[in-house]
Amino acid sequence: MNFGVDTGFYPLGSCTMKYNPKINEEIASHPAFAGLHPLQPESTVKGAKEVEEGLGKALCAITGMKAFTFLPCAGAHGELTGLMLIREYHLAHGDTARTKVIVPDSAHGTNPASANVCGLEIVEVKSGANGLVDVESLKPLLGPDIAAIMLTNPNTLGLFEREIGEIAKLVHGCGGLLYYDGANMNPLIGKVRPGDMGFDVLHLNLHKSFSTPHGGGGPGSGPVGVAERLLPCLQNVHTSGFHGNFGVMLRAYAYILMLGRENVKMVGPLATLAANYIKESLKDDYKLPIPSVCKHEFVFDGLINDGARDGVAGATTLDVAKRLLDYGFHAPTIYFPLLFHQALMIEPTETESLETLDAFIDVMHRIAEEAAKDPEMLHSAPHNAPIGRPDETTAARQPVLKYE
Ligand SMILES: *Cc1c(COP(=O)(O)O)cnc(C)c1O
Fold it and tell me: What is the tens place of the pLDDT at every residue in 104-134?
């Protein structure tokens, strides 16, 4: 009864698993790699060091950074590492008053959480009506107490921050650094580099953008890359631990080499095309709060006609998600980002066929029709799945994993 990401459409925005080719699993489970131990003498792990170096070089070429550490084992872990590097950079320059980090209201929740764990104070910057960081709201926040701004580009709404050049100039102008959340770097690979946009530190999620399946909380790898001026801080990280999550690094390297320098540039455009195709096909049925061209993902804000009438509540985003299960589709991300109350965040990825995209669009149309006619039927969906609506907290905390 399992749903397989290799056999079914999985349009989960933001935290998506992108393409996870099975050959990478075979490579990562090869005994010559899987049997390695982090305490083995260096002379016996030359092949593994070559993988690490090769991957580091490829990621530097893709991001425009100067060097990477592979120690962090998740995106959030990378954020904390990156912010600690930024703090160290400022302290090394005798700059002790920089205690604040600017985070947009559309940011992934781990951004403010990591800043908080790092002992930094969070200052929120608002998005404008177009879903992008509002430069005029940013200006008054800048000053000698700002350590950094954390940004995702494209942002969590799937929109490219077009004023990033101006933002970089302003933040650097006040002595702050730019942190890039590269968890979902896939739409930009081979097209635009965060380093060229002015970012100083970033993390990537190899388990999202570079082909490691990560259901159920792992495995992950959140390598951190730095620009030239932070290289001295990175040296200290390198002397403090093992080698990171090597199996995930191996998959990422295999994925990059398999695609090659030219084909890797098609990942972003194809993901972008697929996302815009779905968005444009469904915008007469679902509310599209920000109608511009998106990158790899976009957000609807619930149904246009949810079927609400006297004494009958309209169908919600949760109802749509549950009804999708009846039709054999995994649900998209729902109720995130928090900017919209009925958020439905869809990311198709670059490898889905036109047939799959059309089948999904058909079903989403059909659900919109059902909602308009009979929202109560949707309130009790799914009707064909083995279980209906478990209590979500209990299901997450005490999962029943055996079928009896
Ligand atoms: C997933 C994600 C993170 C956090 O990554 P984890 O590996 O889950 O810690 C951070 N930022 C963005 C934009 C993400 O999508």
Answer: 988 999 999 999 999 999 999 998 888 899 9
CATH architecture of the domain formed by 22-260? 3-Layer(aba) Sandwich (3.40)
Buried b (16+ CB within 10 A) or exposed e, 164-192: beebbebbeeebbbbbbbbbbbbbbbbeb
**Ligand 1 nearest atom to the CA of residue 207, by list position:** 7
| Three-point CA angle 120, 122, 128, nearest 5° | 150
What is the average pLDDT across 174-193? 93
Name the β-bridge partners of 345: 299, 333
Residues whose beta carbon lies within 6 Å of some atom of ligand 1? 14-15, 74-76, 108, 110, 152, 181, 183-184, 205, 220, 222
Q: To test the ligand 1 pocket, which listed residue (18, 108, 151, 297) has its Cβ within 8 A of the most ligand atoms?
A: 108
Each domain of the chain, given as residue ranges in start order, spans 22-260, 267-387
CA of 108 to the centre of ligand 1 (A): 7
Quick: pLDDT tens for 26-57. Answer: 999 999 999 999 889 989 999 999 999 999 99
CA torsion sign for 245, 81, 16, 55 is: negative
pTM (two decimals): 0.89
Distance 55 CA to ligand 1 centre (A): 20
Whole-number Å distance, alpha carbon 219 to ligand 1 midpoint, is 13
Residue 105 CA to ligand 1 centre (angstroms): 16
The CATH number of domain 267-387 is 3.40.50.2300 = no
Res. 343 pLDDT band, cuts 50 70 90: very high
Atom 8 (ligand 1): residue with closest C-alpha?
A: 75
CA 297 to chain centre: 10
